[in-house]
Amino acid sequence: MEESKRLLGSRIKELRKTRGLSQEKIAEIVGVDPKHISRIEVGKSSPSLDTLEKIANALGMELKDFFEFAHHLKSPDNIIKDINRLIKGISEEKLGQILKIVRAIVR
Fold this sequence. Notes:
Blueprint lengths: L1 H17 L4 H8 L3 H8 L7 H11 L10 H5 L1 H12 L4 H15 L1
């Protein structure tokens, strides 16, 4: 679920920026606090369906457009971010094991 919220937020941010709109402007149009838009875009908050529809209207999009984020999943930068999130805080022993596996794969 967390990954879905992050991807949705990232997609909303991407579409908002392509249209040259600020978080403040979207928030004004939608009728929410700009901080709420920020929390949605970073995946810390899930928008209600009503809010999501209003954001879609403000961006001139359809709801389905928010869920077209397959390109985010395949981006090398996003893959590296996911790997970093997964290995954060694990033991030195497990990091060594991961390194061995990665070396075996890239050879």
